[in-house]
Write a structure and sequence with these properties.
Blueprint: H1 2-25, H2 44-63, H3 68-80, H4 89-105, H5 114-120
Helix pairs in contact: 1-2, 2-3, 4-5
């Protein structure tokens, strides 16, 4: 029974890692019907790299079998990386939406207000 539980947890981690790897390959800050694209286009590479770095951190979290509270703390730390860029509202909403995709990839149901604070209280 212990072996089954370990295998199940490991398969869960593998699933999350695969989901995150798919996200990492996606182009970031692309214009769409609901997003005009990054306002400060010269920051696109560095901001895309920051999102990918955050994904890497979440991948490490899956390998370490992070609990919900640990993912929320990682989310908070990851969002702080964007503070120095003075992003406009649409770009902050894009970053927040991308972190929602990361949360979905690891099946984190709620950010505990972290995303909302970041977008609307301008914490990043």
């Amino acid at each position: 029974m212990i072996v089954f539980a370990c295998n199940k947890k490991s398969n869960y981690s593998i699933k999350h890692t695969k989901n995150l790897e798919i996200l990492k390959k996606e182009p970031k800050f692309q214009a769409s019907a609901f997003y005009p694209g990054l306002e400060k286009r010269h920051d696109k590479k560095v901001l895309s790299d920051l999102l990918n770095d955050s994904i890497d951190d979440f991948i490490e979290g899956t390998k370490d079998n992070f609990a919900e509270a640990e993912y929320k703390e990682l989310l908070k730390e990851s969002l702080q990386r964007f503070e120095t860029f003075n992003l406009d509202t649409e770009d902050r909403e894009y970053v927040s939406g991308y972190f929602e995709k990361i949360m979905d990839a690891v099946e984190l149901q709620s950010s505990g207000g972290v995303l909302n604070n970041g977008v609307y209280n301008r914490n990043f």
